[in-house]
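Lab meeting notes turned into a lecture example. A postdoc, R.K., suggested we walk through two folding results consecutively so the class can see how the record format repeats. The first protein's sequence and structure tokens come next.
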Amino acid sequence: MLVSYGILFGILGWIHVMILAQDGMIFGWIWRPRFPMWLSKITRSCEYCVAGQIALWLWPARTYMDYNVVDHILVIGLSIFTVEVINGIKENFTRDN
């Protein structure tokens, strides 16, 4: 369960930043220049930050009955690592084409 949720949170963070939060997309209008850059980075412009935030807030909600802080840290790290893997795959595909 830990690994699958870590991967899922990483995929969700990447999709949110790289697709859904771009201008013209469903969440593109929400975080325009109304907020300071540090807030925009963790909610819109940094896929690593968004994946970590998703894992930070959703993992305790998912495991509230048997919460473990070590598992929480591992899920956050795995979600960020998943984003790195996705970016590496994307870079390899765009470089070859």
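The second example is placed directly after the first for contrast:
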Amino acid sequence: MALEQLQFGVENPAAHGTAVAADTRFVGEAKIDFVPDHRPIVPADDIGLKVNGYRAVETTGKLVQGTLNIPRAYYQVFPWLFSHLIKGGITPSMQTALQNDYLWTFEPSLTASNTLDSSTVELGDSVQAFEIEYLTLDRMKLTITLPQDNSDAVVKLEAGFFARQNTKTTFTASVAVPSVSELNSLLAKIYVDSSWATIGNTEKTGILRQVELEILNGAYPEFNGNGLVFTTIGEGKFAVLCTLTLVNGSDAIALFDATGDLKFVKVLLEGDAIGTGDKHSVDIQFSCAVMEVIPGASKDKETSLTTVMLEGVYAVTGTAMLKAYCTTNVPTI
């Protein structure tokens, strides 16, 4: 019997790529499929025979590129996620004395390094475990679908990553099974406003059916010689892509009329209160251009639905494009 596990340890920021033991499990049906870190190459040597070659060589570097899938997203994973995607080195603040309701604030610099965190991840099963070090993220996709048939209202999360290499290992023993709070898509809220100063003031109620939100951070591995693995991480440009599915009506048509305009959107998912303190929450805010609106793009039974496509753009007033916040009972990653 092969019993699978997936767990991680956050690496020392002063020693990225130095493997550490795992201390936290991924749950929520989380999975990373094994991806080879290199492939041999058969040179097309001409040797007078009807064959493609006679030797295999290993002249590539090592790099693991894959996806972390969490079909049942939970609040406690977002501090780790945003620290590896948006901005590293964040220290949260407790909002209510003695209640462990920690607010994590991720407001990335658009001019300086965001010093992304990295992790060593242990994956595999009871037959063979592997560790991949210097893992960080380059994209995230959040899918929030509001079921209309009383089915499971989960929020789906996938995160693209790259890491150095696969190394056979044994799982770190006795990593505790965490207690987590799952996101419920039926509790999602969407706000559309006209500035950073007013973002979160205008909720669009009674019309939300789906949000597909993707964040890319432009991160990439850099190979700088004297080794087969990357040594540093480069940082590129942030991008935000969002598709909304809304019930057709005056609010949806107002966005049609605003095609090409600058808007400020907030996606909020709240859960239960943490003790007597603040609620678990994930709050993603971004400035964007309304790129395309298709009224009546689809139907759910006899309800007409509109598709709205948004693309993140920099807002000169407010000097930002993306901000993310998470409140949960996790004091460290």
